[in-house]
Amino acid sequence: MNDAGKMAAIRLRLPATSANLGPGFDAVAVALDFALEIEAEVAAEFSIAATGRDAESCARLQDNLILETYKHLLRAHQRPIVPLAMRIQNGIPLGMGCGSSAAARLAAIALAVLFGRLDWGTEHVLEEAYALEGHPDNVAACWLGGFVSAVCEGRKVHVARVDPPAEWRAIVVLPAEPLATSKARAMLPLCYELGDVVTNLQSVSVLGLAFAQGRADLLRLAMNDRIHQPYRAPICPLLPLLLPLVGENGILGVALSGAGPAVLCVVDGEKSLDEASAVITNAARNRIATELVMSRFSQAGAEQSIENKRLSEYKSI
Length: 317
Prior knowledge:
Blueprint: E1 10-19, E2 28-42, E3 47-52, H1 55-58, H2 65-76, E4 84-90, H3 100-115, H4 122-133, H5 136-144, E5 147-153, E6 156-162, E7 169-175, H6 181-186, H7 194-213, H8 216-222, H9 229-232, H10 238-242, E8 251-256, E9 263-267, H11 273-284, E10 290-296, E11 303-304, E12 309-310
Parallel strand pairs: 3-4
Antiparallel strand pairs: 1-2, 1-11, 2-4, 2-5, 5-6, 7-9, 7-10, 8-9, 11-12
């Protein structure tokens, strides 16, 4: 790789994710096709020009998750802090459970690897992201794309990945107000009934196969959860409004997206989007102000446009 000062602008694209998918708490996630996009180049001082969702927050130089993580990694690995001029186009809503923090931290890792000459491949990137983010499922889905199941061995993250059915679609239903992940996690109990645990094990064992085999008939049961969604419903009021829609109007399954408050609705195809959107809007009408984001499931993970390759395909970035 050339010296950082001689490098051309780097363009990154990191997809949104929906993690904790149904019964897959801290274990299962899927990538979506709206994204955080960044262009960065070496500069005399740090600067950020941001557009898109939450642009004002993205443009801050203080308490900026991307910049703070980037600087932290360079310091931790005894690399000089290389100032960057960054242009951000953000398509991921902040604080909604769509993987904004995972995308930001992975962007920072990619920048640190590139400008700090860190010889990291996918395994090391996922280890660092998991250590920073605390959740292996959404970092794996963001980096690798597709539908992923993740299991940890110490810091090491092991991932199984499949491409979701090409015809399936996602409708992400966003309420007006964000929710801190820490608040959502604080709603969870310390102990669970055996029956609830068994039900979740049955559901999550089928969930991966349903996505891998396109088993729309199984998704209603495969996305059933008793571990986190019932306890988060009081602070994620869209969920109880939309769960009863499963099995109608092409809606195959409904789950919180990440820790909420957004809700992911899986739809059987393009043909059902209008009908599904109408019943979703009607269910929330006069109760909660919402925005509907139509999405495909993304097979692509993190991408670097200079080489037109996924970053996850590099042995050393």
